[in-house]
Amino acid sequence: MRVCVIGGGYVGLVTGSCLAELGHNVVIIDIDEKKVLSINEGKPPLFEAGLEEIVKKHIGKNLSATCSFFPVKDAELTMICVGTPPDNSGNADLHYVRSASESVGRALRNQDKKHYVVVKSTVPPGTTDGLVRETVLSEAGRGNIAFGMNPEFLREGRAVWDFFHPDRIVIGCHEQDLFDCMKRLYQGIEAPVIQVLPTEAEMIKYVSNAFLATKISFSNEIGNICKRMGIDVYRVMEGVGLDRRIGKEFFNAGVGFGGSCFPKDVMALARFAEGMGVEPCILKSVLSVNEDQPGKMISLLEKRVGGLHGKRIAVLGLAFKDNTDDIRESRAIPVIRMLRERGAHVAAYDPLAIPAMKEVFPDIDYGTTPEAVLEGADACLILTEWPEFSRLDKEFDLMNNRVIIEGRRVLKTHGYEGICW
Ligand code: UGA
Q1: Considering only CA atoms, which of 306, 329, 330, 308 is closest in space to residue 317?
Q2: 250 in contact with ligand 1, CB cutoff 6 A
Q3: Active-site residue among 4, 181, 261, 420?
């Protein structure tokens, strides 16, 4: 199938490359020339396990990138995979979706051949049937175009694996032929495929992320209660999660969730609800529990070491989770900010995310090894679930004072204290 993917960012590049691996002819269209150049050179502009191999294998064959929307005209299907960042008030900013829709519409002007436009970006319910449909059709003139919504459920760091092993494929559409086209697109992937309306598909994406975020905040709240009582929340949630109706995933209590999706999507869904006069009590609480966890870690630290002024605090983990260099909404950001406000001397280490964090905090100390930051430290905070931290043990002997506060439950060493266990 000839497919155009609009947007060579995280979702577009992974989706386009994996569709090429499935045997389709894929053109990735992005307005950023540098990105296009690097994709065409076989060097993905972002790190994602397994992605480079796939791009290298197909580039120049059934995968290419361009800044021109011209290839849309000859494609059967166009997938819109552009970003929907939050605007100043937390709503999803749809201006990239609008401009992509305009360009797709212009490329399809006066075209009679059937074309499918499918939105993959996370967008508020009603966007595909409203903004996208209206914009494309008004630019295209009267065309033979059908519209659909196919949310992505890829996790950063595991996106290629997730693409080929999804729990489900959700296709929101009004026409049977679009549904059949999407089934052909994903042929070879074993997963239940469900057909819903575009608004339902848009909602499924938001609700999935909101529910996962809710599980985390719920677990953190229970953790905060358990901590007071000397109960281990991990053992509690293990017992709770064995109930198949509940499930054990996403119950890891700690310093809270970050990343480019959960905070933004929960906020956008809450704003969307408020815009309609529905009070999103649970969604707001999910965010407020998450906002409070970093402060809880600092309070615990102050309880253990006293005033932080002039103290050397080692921070292990800067990325918002393991296996990525992404620091967007990382809980390390508010933690480091609070440490600095209290006059602490921060020494930080992360296997991948130091360059990114240097942009936010250029003047804290960064170490190239855990030992370098632990040496002489008055306390250590664990903020990312990097598996390599589980091997740390003797390294903590380099500290002035062995106060270790764990925000992720990844350590195997003795004598640390969990933020909420
Ligand atoms: C998330 C979803 O898991 C994907 O299904 C979805 O497609 C994606 O958002 C998206 O909307 O694009 P991602 O943000 O890559 O994926 O990361 P997750 O692995 O879900 O972790 C998010 C945050 O939650 C991390 O900061 C992680 O440390 C934290 N977390 C996760 C916990 O604090 N506890 C847990 O039990 C699990």
Answers
A1: 330
A2: yes
A3: 261
∠ CA 213-214-215 to the nearest 5 degrees? Answer: 90
Nearest CA to ligand 1 atom 9: 261
Residue 81 catalytic? no
Q: Is the CB of residue 258 below 6 angstroms from any atom belonging to ligand 1?
A: yes
For residues 94 and 96, give the distance between their C-alpha atoms in angstroms, rounded to a whole number: 6
Task: Look over the chain and give the mean of its residue pLDDT values, rounded to a whole number.
Answer: 97
CA of 94 to the centre of ligand 1 (A): 23
Regarding the beta carbon of 259 and ligand 1, being less than 6 Å apart is answered yes
Region class of 256: left (phi > 0), else alpha (psi between -120 and 50), else beta: left
Q: Is the pLDDT of residue 1 over 80?
A: yes
Tell me: pLDDT of 142 over 80: no
pTM listed for this prediction = 0.96
Mean pLDDT value across residues 388-417: 97
Index of the ligand 1 atom closest to the CA of residue 213: 24
- Beta bridge partner(s), residue 116: 77, 146
Please tell me the predicted confidence (pLDDT) of residue 218. 98
Q: pLDDT tens across 13-45, in order?
A: 999 999 999 999 999 999 999 999 999 999 999
- pLDDT, tens digit (0-9, with 9 covering 90-100), for 147-178: 999 999 999 999 999 999 999 999 999 999 99
Report the pLDDT averaged over residues 269-276: 96
Distance 259 CA to ligand 1 centre (A): 7
Ligand 1 geometric centre to CA of 143 (Å): 39
Q: Of the candidates 126, 114, 88, 119, which has an alpha carbon nearest to the alpha carbon of residue 7?
A: 119
Cα(336)–Cα(347) distance, rounded to whole angstroms? 10
What is the spatial distance between Cα 284 and Cα 139, in angstroms, rounded to a whole number?
A: 39
What's residue 348's pLDDT? Answer: 98
CA of 212 to the centre of ligand 1 (A): 8
Please state, in angstroms and rounded to a whole number, the distance separating the CA atoms of residues 49 and 237.
30
Atom of ligand 1 nearest to the CA of 122: 11
Beta bridge partners of 117: 78, 147
Cβ of 383 below 6 Å from ligand 1 = no
Residue 241's SS3 state is helix
